Amino acid sequence: MKFNIPLGFDNFSIRALNWKAPQLLDYAASLNLDAVLFSDLNVYESHDENYLREIKAQADDLGLVIHAGTGSICPTSNTFNDKWGNAEEHLSLTIRVAEALGSPVARCYLGNADDRTSEGGIRARMRDTAAACKAVRSQALDAGVKIAIENHAGDMQARELVELIHEAGPDFVGATLDSGNATWALEEPLRNLEILGSYAVSSGIRDSMVWREDNDVLVQWTAMGEGLVDWNAYFQRFAQLCPGVPCQLEIISGFARGFPCFDPAFWAPYEDVRAGDFMRFLNLSFRGHELAPASMNEADYQRAELERSIAFCRDLGLGMKKG
Questions:
Q1: What span, in angstroms and rounded, lies between the C-alpha atoms of 83 and 71?
Q2: How far is CA 288 from CA 194, 211, 246, 256, 301, in A?
Q3: Band (121; pLDDT cuts 50, 70, 90)
């Protein structure tokens, strides 16, 4: 089956190489890909307009679409970094970079799972994130750039991210759909896709293995095809719900995270999770098995994981160019 889905990768997949934008574009072109997500602002030598236009020209010459992004834009998240100014200034810079690169999106995120236990809980952080987005609404609309908030590191479930998008304004805010981060939020990736897919304007895609160990459910992200996701079913639905959105592979693997789901105290920050949704996640653990850890911070390991995942996706029928 041929899926009409562009194929690319997030530069975080090969972060240990420390490549800047020009090298990453050449690498993507050497793999005959369609797109690349630059998910941080450090990937550029400069944020000067002329430099960014040169990067765009290089991408155009190579037949690549750039998606631009950054990290947390929630000023009260434990992950927020003021290197780029306050939340409004940070988001404004990201939109300006995206516009110069011809990126239709400005990918960003709220924070991580620890924000669920912060003062006021995850909804207080959602309100703060929505406020940061609203502060740059005119700039985003004028630039033709959609703010693409990722479900990130267990911060929000799909339903919560949809709530945030509507609070901020769906005319200029959408989602970066992350299949791996879904499992860190106690979600089954296909269910996450069903809820979030119609809001997606960018993506971060990887596989997950899930298994039981004593009273914990463990999640280990994997290269594509080495976890539990039914990718034929996933991409059939992805093509329907997310037309034109690239599959940007964000391969992170080699370590497991445990969730003490059978401890009642664990559930305080997850009181709104629906039982049916959680059971779909839990059912994954009955099909999964333990994986050994790996040298996740080594450049050769990261590159091999990404390239194996690209090959898997091509065999499945993704990509607009011939491999």
A1: 11
A2: 22, 5, 28, 13, 23
A3: very high
For the chain, the average pLDDT equals 97
Place of tokens 């960014």: 52
Place of tokens 């050497």: 30
Site of tokens 């990261």: 302
Residue 188 has which token pair? 């089954």
pLDDT tens digit string along 63-93?
999 999 999 999 999 999 999 999 999 999 9
Contact 198, 161 (CB under 8 A): no
CA nearest to 43, candidates 72, 75, 11, 71: 11
Give the pLDDT confidence of 289-300 residue by residue, as tens digits: 999 999 888 999
Helix 158-168 to helix 189-196 angle (10° resolution) is 20
- By CB atoms closer than 10 A (0-12, 13-18, 19+), residue 19 is middle
The beta-carbon contacts of 308-312 under 8 Å, at least 24 apart in sequence, are: 308/223, 308/224, 309/206, 309/223, 309/224, 309/225, 309/249, 309/251, 310/7, 310/9, 310/31, 310/33, 310/249, 312/223, 312/224, 312/225, 312/231
Q: What average pLDDT does range 192-204 have in this prediction?
A: 98
How many helical (H) and strand (E) elements, i.e. helices and strands, does the chain have?
11, 11
Query: How far apart are alpha carbons 162 and 167 in whole angstroms?
Result: 9
Which of 185, 79, 186, 171 lies closest to 128, judged by CA?
Answer: 79
Residue 148 main-chain phi, psi, to 5 deg: -115, 95
Question: For 259-272, what is each residue's pLDDT tens digit?
Answer: 999 999 999 999 99
Report residue 278 as tokens. Answer: 């959680």
For residue 43, how many other CB atoms are within 10 A of its CB? 22
The pLDDT score that the predictor gives to residue 297 is: 87
- What's phi and psi for 208, nearest 5 deg? -140, 140
Query: Residue 261's pLDDT is what?
Result: 95
3-class SS at 153?
Answer: coil
Q: How far apart are CA 297 and CA 46, in angstroms?
A: 26
Q: Per-residue pLDDT averaged across 104-131, rounded?
A: 98
